TrEMBL record:
<keyword id="KW-0547">Nucleotide-binding</keyword>
<feature type="active site" description="Proton donor/acceptor">
    <location>
        <position position="151"/>
    </location>
</feature>
<keyword id="KW-0808">Transferase</keyword>
<feature type="site" description="Transition state stabilizer">
    <location>
        <position position="244"/>
    </location>
</feature>
<dbReference type="GO" id="GO:0008776">
    <property type="term" value="F:acetate kinase activity"/>
</dbReference>
<feature type="binding site">
    <location>
        <position position="10"/>
    </location>
    <ligand>
        <name>Mg(2+)</name>
    </ligand>
</feature>
<feature type="binding site">
    <location>
        <position position="94"/>
    </location>
    <ligand>
        <name>substrate</name>
    </ligand>
</feature>
<dbReference type="InterPro" id="IPR043129">
    <property type="entry name" value="ATPase_NBD"/>
</dbReference>
<dbReference type="InterPro" id="IPR004372">
    <property type="entry name" value="Ac/propionate_kinase"/>
</dbReference>
<dbReference type="GO" id="GO:0005524">
    <property type="term" value="F:ATP binding"/>
</dbReference>
<keyword id="KW-0418">Kinase</keyword>
<protein>
    <recommendedName>
        <fullName>Acetate kinase</fullName>
        <ecNumber>2.7.2.1</ecNumber>
    </recommendedName>
</protein>
<feature type="binding site">
    <location>
        <position position="387"/>
    </location>
    <ligand>
        <name>Mg(2+)</name>
    </ligand>
</feature>
<dbReference type="Pfam" id="PF00871">
    <property type="entry name" value="Acetate_kinase"/>
</dbReference>
<feature type="binding site">
    <location>
        <begin position="211"/>
        <end position="215"/>
    </location>
    <ligand>
        <name>ATP</name>
    </ligand>
</feature>
<feature type="site" description="Transition state stabilizer">
    <location>
        <position position="183"/>
    </location>
</feature>
<keyword id="KW-0479">Metal-binding</keyword>
Length: 403
């Protein structure tokens, strides 16, 4: 029997998230996380899912990514699923920035590594960590196909009119400044899953996808291809997020520097880590914000209102970009769980054919589901995202194709 397992790795600067899937039925065999790599109290959390095993936790020093992956392999090996298993077909890596060049999942070789490295200036936080994960995995299993699945790839179909900023073209090109977009694996997965929910082919429908997690982005998908998305050169642009401001007049930055005396690093931290919901009301968890609103907290209410206002602007914008819309899909932590966000985002949009049925909206489930009333002109849906499954699916398809 041929190898059918895929290990999905999401390597951050001090963490590695992983899932092992069996692609015969897309089932999950194990999931886990290594956190605080490089610290004294690194933590590994591993849950075997195939044999109904219990979650195992382990705290102790894990010096670097190599030690982390070895620890993961040792945990997997306890259930007969180690990295040396002949059943392992490939490793799929989440890579945040693929620039203009990587439009599809790509088998990693030295040239691909060099290109991902060349993109570090436009993804200084993410690509170095992704590269470390890839290099380590290649050292451990040099014989195994390793595939990079890029967060930006789904958005490479955006037309130039959506992808370019209106700044001097030569300056933009010299510094590779353009709108790349992120969360692409999720937007791709959710737009297809929405088509499946409606019994249509992705090619035959237009969808607005709202990925609302701690990071948040919207996309306009025409016939299965992304035509616009709200994140840009970096994940800072667009919607109000947990800790990021999203859209602002860029002159705010000049003002903070000139009048506020802040350094570029301080402004970067302010806009990426101390803005959005947390900057507005001190909390970035929508559950906590809703709880405070229920108690009459005005700052939490204002933060919520600003969040919804921005979301509505993007829904309207993408409606206009697409011309006709067949479905709006809510996904990720907030989109999947926060019924009040969905209700408020759709309120007053009846003229656009957007309606939410209160009872359907209140249902909690892990399955994709409609929340618009029967017969509505536009389907409004909750579609749980599954980036790991999408990475594994794309990785396995590529490996099979090359076999
Ligand atoms: P990311 O992958 O960007 O870190 P997630 O997609 O996991 O984020 O979303 C995390 C966010 O989802 C939390 O910060 C919280 O605001 C929101 N969230 C999670 N569960 C709920 C819930 N039951 N109700 C409302 N919001 C929720």
């Amino acid at each position: 029997m041929s190898a059918t397992r895929v290990l999905v790795l999401n390597s951050g600067s001090s963490s590695v998230k992983y899932q092992l899937l069996d692609m015969r039925d897309s089932s999950r065999l194990a999931v886990g996380l290594v956190e605080r790599i490089g610290e004294e109290a690194s933590r590994l959390r591993h849950t075997p899912l195939s044999g109904g095993g219990e979650t195992r936790e382990w705290t102790g020093p894990i010096a670097d990514h190599e030690a982390a992956l070895k620890a993961v392999s040792a945990e997997l090996a306890k259930d007969g699923l180690g990295l040396d298993s002949p059943e392992l077909a490939a490793i799929g890596h989440r890579v945040v920035h693929g620039g203009k060049h990587f439009t599809e999942p790509t088998v990693i070789d030295d040239a691909v590594l060099a290109e991902i490295e060349r993109l570090i200036p436009v993804a200084p936080l993410h690509n170095p960590a992704n590269l470390t994960g890839i290099r380590t995995a290649r050292q451990l299993r040099p014989d195994l196909p390793q595939v990079a699945v890029f967060d930006t790839a789904f958005h490479t179909t955006m037309p130039e009119s959506a992808a370019r900023y209106a700044i001097d073209v030569e300056t933009a090109d010299r510094h590779r400044i353009r709108r790349y977009g992120f969360h692409g694996t999720s937007h791709a997965y959710v737009s297809r899953a929405t088509a499946r929910l409606l019994g249509k082919a992705p090619e035959d429908m237009n969808v607005i996808v709202l990925h609302l997690g701690n990071g948040a982005s919207a996309s306009a998908v025409r016939g299965g291809r992304c035509v616009d998305t709200s994140m840009g050169l970096t994940p800072l642009e667009g919607l109000v997020m947990g800790t990021r401001s999203g859209d602002m007049d860029p002159a705010v930055i000049f003002h903070l520097a000139r009048v506020g005396g802040m350094s570029i690093e301080e402004i970067d931290t302010l806009l990426n880590k101390k803005s959005g919901l947390i900057g507005l009301c001190g909390d970035n968890d929508m559950r906590e914000i809703r709880r405070r609103i229920d108690e009459g907290d005005e700052r939490a209410q204002l933060a919520f209102d600003i969040y919804i206002h921005r979301l509505k602007k993007y829904i309207g914008a993408y409606y206009a970009v697409l011309g006709t819309v067949d479905a709006v899909a809510f996904t990720a932590g907030v989109g999947e769980n926060a019924a009040p966000v969905r209700e408020a985002a759709m309120a007053g949009l009846e003229q656009l054919g957007l309606l939410v049925d209160a009872e359907l909206n209140a249902v909690r489930a892990d399955e994709p589901r409609l929340i618009s009333p029967a017969g509505a002109r536009v389907a409004v849906a909750v579609v749980p995202t599954d980036e790991e499954l999408e990475i594994a699916t794309q990785t396995y398809a590529l490996v099979e194709e090359n076999a």
